Amino acid sequence: ELLTVFSNSVTNGGKTTLAEKLKNMLPNCDIISQDDFFKPESEVETDEHGFKLYDVLDALYMDEMVTSIRNWIKSPASSGVVTEEPQNTCDNLKNVYILIVEGFLLYNYEPLNELWNRRYFLTLPYEECKRRRSTRVYQPADTPGYFDGHVWPMYLKYKNELEENASMQVDYLDGTKSQEELLSYVYSDIIQELNKLRE
Question: In which pathway does it act (predicted)?
Answer without folding.
Answer: Cofactor biosynthesis; NAD(+) biosynthesis
